[in-house]
Design brief:
Elements: H1 2-13, E1 21-23, E2 32-34, E3 54-57, E4 64-67, H2 69-73, E5 82-86, E6 92-93, E7 103-105, E8 112-114, E9 120-121, E10 126-128, E11 133-149, E12 157-164, E13 167-175, E14 177-181, E15 184-199, E16 204-210, E17 224-233
Parallel strand pairs: 1-2
Antiparallel strand pairs: 3-4, 5-8, 5-17, 6-7, 7-16, 9-10, 10-16, 11-15, 11-17, 12-13, 12-16, 14-15
């Protein structure tokens, strides 16, 4: 009789048992349902991205699922990204909040090459910072053909202006450079700015020229300007 009982127990032990286990919950809703926080003491580092999955939590069900990293990488364009180029119809705008000598280029939302038109205002030709953080900004401008007779008297160049709560501040600038070629003094009237800047939500960014009183408006018709801006960090 004992032999039969042992045989029955051995047979039962070989049958897979499927159940749900709950920790801090009497009603588990998954194979393992943890009602509480989780600590993992050691996590190996992946040497490469391909061949691995990312674990993510469903904010609705709190269930952990795996996500292909490429889905995150290709999730879409940075919503703060904006780029525009103006190669005709350039004029320089002057506002009372601008520092002396600074005049903004009349970029328009219709001239954007990337980004949402809602980020840029045609009213004051500015990009509005959507959220506080660090932004990468690039601005380039070619005045006329890029090579002019000397216009260095007032150190003209390009500048990036930040309007914060009605106060205009030039956060970066670069002058056009000059060259003396024996009998002819020339100005290389093409330059660019590329850097990162800490900005606050609501700041308005303008792109323009500094020392503009020395510039001949007649050359603006053959000028070209472009800029890009996007958030890189909080």
């Amino acid at each position: 009789m004992k032999t039969k009982i042992y045989s029955l127990l051995l047979a039962l032990s070989a049958i897979p048992v499927f159940s749900q286990v709950g920790i801090n919950t009497a009603t588990p809703a998954a194979t393992l349902d943890v009602n509480g926080n989780l600590k993992v003491r050691t996590v190996p580092t992946s040497p490469t991205l391909p061949g691995y999955q990312i674990l993510a939590i469903n904010t609705s069900t709190t269930e952990v699922t795996q996500v292909d990293p490429q889905l995150i990488w290709n999730s879409g364009t940075n919503p703060t990204l904006y780029a525009a180029k103006k190669s005709s119809g350039i004029s320089l705008l002057s506002l009372s909040l601008f520092p002396s000598g600074f005049r903004a280029v009349n970029f328009l939302a219709a001239e954007r090459s990337l980004g949402s038109a809602a980020l840029f205002s045609d009213t004051d030709n500015t990009y509005t910072i959507p959220s506080t953080g660090v932004y990468a900004i690039g601005f380039s401008f070619r005045y006329g053909t890029g090579l002019q007779a000397s216009i260095l008297a007032n150190s003209p160049g390009i500048g990036i202006l930040r309007n914060r709560a009605g106060v205009g501040t030039i956060i970066d600038s670069r002058a056009f450079s000059g060259a003396n070629l024996i009998l002819l003094s020339l100005t290389i009237s093409e330059t660019s700015l590329n850097s990162v800047y800490s900005l606050q939500a609501g700041d308005k960014i303008s792109f323009g020229l500094t020392g503009s009183t020395a510039l001949d408006a007649g050359f603006l018709g053959s000028s070209i300007g472009s800029f890009f801006i996007y958030k890189v960090s909080n």
